Amino acid sequence: MAVTVIRSPAGGGKTTSFARQIAHANNDWRIEVYVPTHALAQEWMALIKQFNPNCGVRIIGGRNHEAANGKPLCSRHQIAAKITQAGQSVYTRLCASSGGERCNSYNGCPYIDQFDFGRVFIYTHAFLPLDRGMLDARVPDLVVIDEGFSSVCLEKIEFNIAMLRHHSLPPAASVLCAEIASLLQSGSSLHPLIARAVRRGGGLNAAVQALRTCTPRPQPSQSDQQVLHTLSTAPSFEQVAKLLEHLKQAFARKKILQSIDFDTASGKITVHHRRDITRFKPQSSQHQSPQIFLLDATASKEITEVFFPRAAFHEIRVRRNACVVQCRSSKCSKRSINPAAHTDPKGKLTAAQRLGEVQQLINELSRSGKKLLVVGPTAITGNPNRSVPALVQVPVHCALG
Fold it and tell me: CA–CA separation, 171 vs 290, rounded Å?
């Protein structure tokens, strides 16, 4: 794949330039654009249409995405989520099977219909680590990925070590899983075991396949209740399968394994897994690889090459007419910084420490003498009219709101 990274400051015209080229590209091409949010997808579509009103542009949403009428695109999106958790293909299990069975809502389904026609398809970043399905099987000729995407490829997997010794594990995986459990509990290295499993006739691959095929498979013609019943007749080992895939991926790169945590007290295994991007690989040797462009003002060469090795970087320098600051936010709920909202000592202490961090930030930002407005919920910033004291303080030249 030819991957080019365009690194240029915000407002440098990257989006406008590519939207213009996409609008007038070869009519036979399939083009895909990936953006962080649906709001940005709407902006991209409007910009492309501005340059070519006749260009067929489709914004692709997930099954649970709300359509214009306020309803999810797929009426069975909650059941679809259960099938995904079981590691099975939603399309073949809920929409249309290879045997010809179809969901009763298939004809006229807004989720299915959005793939029907178009030359330019705009997805959110969430689609990047997903494999191609029956609805978008054709690999595109041109791909544009707007802004940083790496966070959507990171996945945290958690399950109890008892799953590695479950009595329902398929024979092809049970011995390997039991050995992994023993090594985790003893604190020993997993590398020799996984290396042997990879070498011995594809033992690890066979284990992953067995884990994913042993789960009962629902059919599109079944009702929601029947699908749930089918899935409940046997445990899902998808998390275990992902653990094995992660181990193979980590040791294939000869990396020190730092991405798996095991809590001996609770028996919880936590896997910090990176999902590769495979949806742009050619379907066969007869198909050409797509051209891929990454547009990001702060693109990191180290992070990008993890997903796209040998990517070519091009930096475009422009005359600045304004200073643009890209901010990084931190989740900070009212409860997380209000000690009084907690009854247990540990919760109170954690909230007090978090509140202290907020106060430290206020002190740093107001130290220069600039006016600072701190806005927050009444429980934190106070309300003199209601005699509610503030939990943070600001200098006289600043204000709370």
Answer: 41
Question: What tokens does 388 get?
Answer: 């509610």
Matching residue, tokens 């178009």: 118
Per-residue pLDDT of the chain in tens (401 residues, 90 and over written 9): 799 999 988 777 889 999 999 999 988 999 999 999 999 999 999 999 999 999 999 999 999 998 888 899 999 999 999 998 888 889 999 999 888 899 999 999 999 999 988 899 999 999 999 999 889 989 999 999 999 999 999 999 999 999 999 999 999 999 999 999 999 999 888 888 888 887 765 688 889 999 988 888 899 999 999 999 999 998 999 999 999 988 888 777 666 666 889 999 999 999 998 899 999 998 777 678 899 999 998 889 999 999 999 999 998 887 777 776 767 677 788 889 999 999 989 989 999 999 999 999 999 999 888 889 999 999 999 988 888 999 999 999 999 99
DSSP per-residue codes, 152-205: GGEEEEEEEGGGGG-TTS-HHHHHHHHHHHHHHHHT--SHHHHHHHHHTTSHHH
Measured in residues, the chain has a length of 401
Torsion from C-alpha of 160, 161, 164, 169, nearest 10 degrees: -30
For residue 272, the surrounding DSSP H or E stretch is strand 268-274
Residue 100: helix, strand or coil by DSSP?
coil
> Which segments within 192-267 are labelled E, that is strand?
260-263
The pairs formed by 282-287 with CB atoms below 8 angstroms and a separation of 24 or more are 282/139, 283/137, 283/139, 287/139
d(CA 338, CA 381): 11
* 99, burial (CB in 10 Å: exposed 0-12, middle 13-18, buried 19+): exposed
Pairwise CA distance, residues 181 & 187, whole Å: 10
